[in-house]
Design a protein that fits this description.
The protein is α/β, with parallel strands linked by helices. The protein folds into 2 domains: 211 residues, Spore Coat Polysaccharide Biosynthesis Protein SpsA, Chain A (Alpha-Beta Complex), CATH 3.90.550.60; 50 residues, no CATH class. The chain has 9 helices and 13 strands. The strands form 2 sheets. Strands 1, 2, 3, 4, 5, 6, 7, 10, 12 and 13 form a 10-stranded mixed β-sheet that branches. Strands 9-8-11 form a 3-stranded antiparallel β-sheet. Helix 7 packs antiparallel against helix 9. The longest helix is centred in the first third of the chain and has 14 residues. It is globular, with a radius of gyration of 18 Å. The mean pLDDT is 95.
Length: 273
């Protein structure tokens, strides 16, 4: 038997977390595949952990400190899952609802790849409009954050990095580059995709849409109508571009021009441009 270890982190979204787990646990697994679920409950005060334990007793619930947010929460889940040496690690956001056959498609795409170190990205669409919201991305310049969305096709499509709402990472990739890094919130998935490519791993977008998820990536620190100090606070918050996190991503993946890429967003907000 092969094992897929599902990694999820959550905070105060009980209904969404339960819906996500419901879709996950109703998947028909490919032959020879079993599922394990590792959920980091990062200090939820809405009874998420208790509700999950009652509805899904097989889920391994890991208590977070309340200040892990996404990247560090996912890393904590990964640390627990890695002890069992699973064949795959499935990253799954708790506001993402898998479609029927999603896991089968992820595994099939992985097994058909010529490179055993292939990350498979699942694309998400809006539940109403069916337009793409999250998935694979390709670089369009040297800037590490200027990316073009990859629209899924009938066959797998290569990408440079990804938004990891649904992502299948084989053990061979983990053995090569390790876990997600300790970013404060976001950026960790973008960095992981780039690191994978630098290490000779492949990234493929699986055919079709595999899940639904509403878009939630508005960058409010660019809104010029807000007071400058509020924009500065938002830019440097965990959900913006924290100083050290953006420095790490820029210097790792920005090439010779990385200092320009790194300082630009801070100057843009300070001078209200």
């Amino acid at each position: 038997m092969s094992t897929i270890a599902t990694l999820i982190t959550c905070h105060d979204r009980k209904c969404k977390t339960l819906a996500c787990l419901g879709r996950l646990c109703s998947q028909i697994l490919p032959p020879g595949i079993m599922l394990a679920v590792y959920l980091v409950d990062d200090g939820s005060a809405d009874g998420t952990a208790e509700a999950v334990a009652a509805a899904f007793p097989s889920v391994k619930i890991i208590a977070g400190s309340g200040d892990l947010f996404w990247s560090r929460g996912m890393r904590l889940a990964w640390e627990h899952a890695a002890r069992e040496n699973p064949d795959f690690y499935l990253w799954l956001n708790d506001d993402t609802l898998l479609f029927e056959g999603a896991l089968e498609m992820l595994v099939a795409t992985s097994r058909k790849s010529k490179n055993p170190r292939t990350i498979v990205v699942g694309s998400c669409c809006d539940p109403v409009t069916r337009e793409r919201t999250y998935g694979g991305q390709v670089r369009v310049s040297g800037h590490p954050a200027i990316l073009r969305a990859v629209i899924p096709e009938a066959t797998p499509v290569a990408c440079d990095t990804f938004q990891s709402n649904v992502l299948l990472v084989p053990r061979a990739v983990y053995q090569k580059i390790g876990m997600i890094d300790r970013f404060q919130h976001a950026i960790g998935d973008t960095d992981y995709g780039y690191r994978a490519g630098m290490a000779g791993c492949s990234c493929l977008v699986a055919p079709g849409y595999l899940a639904s998820c509403e878009a939630n990536h508005a960058r409010t620190y660019w809104v010029k109508g807000r007071p400058r100090m509020e924009r500065w606070r938002l830019l440097n918050s965990r959900k913006g571009l924290p100083f050290r996190d953006w420095l790490q991503l820029s210097s790792r993946h920005g090439g010779p021009a990385w200092p320009i890429y790194w300082i630009r967003p801070y100057l843009r907000v300070l001078f209200n441009r």
